[in-house]
Amino acid sequence: MTIGTSLFLIALGAILKFAVTARVSGVDIHTVGVILMIVGGVGLCIGLWLLLRARPTDVPRPPTPLP
Q1: Which of 13, 20, 43, 53 supports an S-S bond with 6, CB 3.0-4.6 Å?
Q2: Can you say how many angstroms the Cα of residue 47 is from the centroid of all Cα atoms in its chain?
């Protein structure tokens, strides 16, 4: 899951949780919204962790001068 997909899931979950007032039999839309926000948040954390982990941390040092 990419960072964009995670942000989309968070936004969709927030819309379902806070903006939708319709009722569907057998499904609690507010609970689905919370679940989508949680999944999006976890995906965002994992995506950022993978992005930061892939960066090279070694910086080449200049050669030391000979005495």
Answers
A1: 43
A2: 6
